[in-house]
Amino acid sequence: MPGSITSSLLRRKLFEPLIFRLNGSPLLRYWRELEQTQFLPEEELKNRQWQRLERMLCHVWENNSFYRERFEKAGITPESVRSPEDLQVIPLLTKEDIRKNTLRMISRDFDTAELQHYKTGGSTGKPLDVYLTEKCSELRNACARRHDRWTGWEVGEPVGAVWGNPELPKDIKGKLKNWLLNPLIYLDTMNVTEHAVKTFAAEWERAKPSLLYGHAHSLYILAEYVNKLGIKEIKPRGILSTSMMLLPNERKFIESVFGVKVTDRYGCEELSLIASECEKHEGLHLNIEHLYIEFLKEDNTPAKPGEQGKIVITDLMNYAMPFIRYQVEDMGIPSERKCSCGRGLPLMEQVTGRVADYLIRRDGSRVAGVSLIENTLTKFSGIAQLQIVQETMDQIVLLVVPALDYSGGTQYELSEYFINLFGNSVNVTIKLVDCIKPEKSGKYRFSICRIQ
Ligand SMILES: [Zn+2]
């Protein structure tokens, strides 16, 4: 009875503490601490954040030749950074900087052979190597766990995932540990068929997960199948969408099919969890306990609340391979609203898209591809799904999954819409397809700009 209350309790109260104690893992202690600190006043959390930032700046000054050199070039020392305004003088870190200097970015006294190492997915064609200590990894896991609970899920309860290329335990030991600690069933997004969805529903009935999670569009596709096939077994208590592109129309549909709210979360592989909605869904709480997050306008000055800016992050926990003022290549909107949940973690309004998803007009202005998708889907009939690929300044390809009422009119309206936005010189090609295919990582992208 893997999904029963008794099993969940056993996992939470017995297996987990036992296994963590045997492993010497500090995760439980971190997690319990984080459960407390989330309700500290915002002022107090920001003080702690600033202290952690100062500590990190001192650390890289003393122990990291890559940053020491950058600081010296910019004429700064840790002592010269006394306020958020002073931070502006620290150069921004690009993905290119990281690729060129990966090993130089490792701090003194850390041995790469002893660090956890992984490559990020590189769905924008730019994979990165990231190193961190086990302790840092445990801190991140503890934080993710706190935010997982905001969905209504409880530690020890089974989870249903809609995921591409999931990493699954291969041997008996791994499977046993999985069952003892994190029982998981999954639907592989690289191969979603009626049969696969029915199998997933049957497994759900057996394991009874309380949480359904996956990339926004994968959840949407599952919701479509569930709706079409009249499946009743998949009844999560919470739904977690970990992709940043949770389109409002898709969110509404997922919520109507499963009858529960979607919890939106934003993160990246290099830094883990960046921001997350809580049970109130009034914006995304920023993870300021682990990160220092800035929103910068085009001229690199801070965006005001409500203004869009590029997201720039300093990791306060990864001492082995520090990320200082790292340009994540996403855009978002900061907020000064307070969430009614009472947590001291400040809010951001929303992530507005990846830089790579922005299309470019002749005059150099940028258009958020996600907004174009939203506009066209709600404006024109006949389109079930749409992917925009800007090949060159004058060449836009639209991959359209037609709905039943698709017609020549739809095609004409779509072309006109893009020509109006991008100018008469643009050549719009419409290709009808059965579905929009996910990337190798299993993630979906609706808007791709190939202009470098
Ligand atoms: Zn809240």
Structure description:
This is Phenylacetate--CoA ligase family protein. It comes from Oryzomonas japonica. InterPro entries: ANL_N_sf (IPR042099), CapK_Type1_Caps_Biosynth (IPR053158). Keywords: Ligase. The protein is an alpha/beta fold and about 450 residues long. It has two domains: about 5-355, Rossmann fold (3-Layer(aba) Sandwich), CATH 3.40.50; about 360-450, GMP Synthetase, Chain A, domain 3 (2-Layer Sandwich), CATH 3.30.300. The chain is built from 13 helices and 19 strands. The protein has helices at about 5-25, 25-35, 40-65, 65-75, 85, 95-100, 135-150, 170-180, 195-205, 215-230, 250-260, 370-380, 410-420; strands spanning about 115-120, 130, 160-165, 185-190, 210-215, 240, 260-270, 270-275, 285, 290-295, 310-315, 325-335, 345-355, 360, 365-370, 385-390, 395-400, 425-430, 445-450. The strands form four sheets. It has an eleven-stranded mixed β-sheet, with helices on both faces. Strand 7 (about 260-270) and strand 8 form a beta hairpin. Helix 2 (about 25-35) packs across helix 7, helix 3 crosses helix 4 and helix 10 crosses helix 11 (about 250-260). It is globular and about 65 Å long. The structure holds zinc ion (ZN).
Key terms:
2 domains, 452 residues, binds zinc ion, 11-stranded mixed sheet, 13 helices, alpha/beta, Rossmann fold, GMP Synthetase, Chain A, domain 3, 4-stranded mixed sheet
